[in-house]
Predict the 3D structure of the following.
Amino acid sequence: MKKILFFILTLISITCFGQDSLNVDSKQVNEGDSIHAASTTMFSNNTLANVTKTEGDSAYIKEDYTAAIQIYEALLKNGEAAEVYYNLGNSYYKIGEIAKAVLNYERALLLQPGNSDIRANLEVARAKTIDKVEAIPEVFFVSWIKSLINSMSVDAWATLGIISFILLIVALYSFIFSKQILWKKTGFISGIIFLIITICANLFASEQKEHLVIRNEAIVMNPSVTVRSTPSESGTSLFILHEGRKVSIKDNSMKEWKEIRLEDGKVGWVPASAIEAI
């Protein structure tokens, strides 16, 4: 009995973490196929301080994408929200700012990795970028695990972990105190299942949270940038990247230069001003 109580207390200690919900209730604005010329509505700083997402959506529907961008960016100063990033990406896409569209779609996907609408629009925007990089093939098991982790957000995994832990306690209670063999077997088997779910959900939530905190990926924002062998303009030119390309930041220790890695394994140095972290 002491061993069981110690086991339960240990599980409690690994389950208690989570994050404030990043979702908003308003309906997302869907991205269309064509890019229209937007009318321009400028807002003062005082006006932007009191805007709502509904106003941004209204400006988007009216094809006033400049106003929509101003509103969505003002909203993001008060806190991150996947739907606002998504709609901001749509607005930038409409005016032909592909790099900024990709950046905001990536940020939205970081907060809601299981959202199929965000992922679809991101792929549409990526198709308009110049650079086409072939990723190094991964072992199928690794790809499957990554897909599973990205199927839900950190909040969803944390919630699943808490629910499965509560059910684990119920199953253990049934196993320990039930006098009927059937209930003992049911409690034992379901307890093992809920234990596995609890551990996996917490590990996956931890992985998602690490991605949110570290932010070691970036988007090339300049029309083009030369990747060099050393963090200096005098370094050997290795290759050229164009706006909208996603890169991983390998070395973030310097202020003016960042060492990056591409999906195909190529590495090099670019000016920090040429990229923006997701």
User: Anything to note?
Assistant: The first strand starts at residue 217 and ends at 220. The chain is about 50% helix and 10% strand.
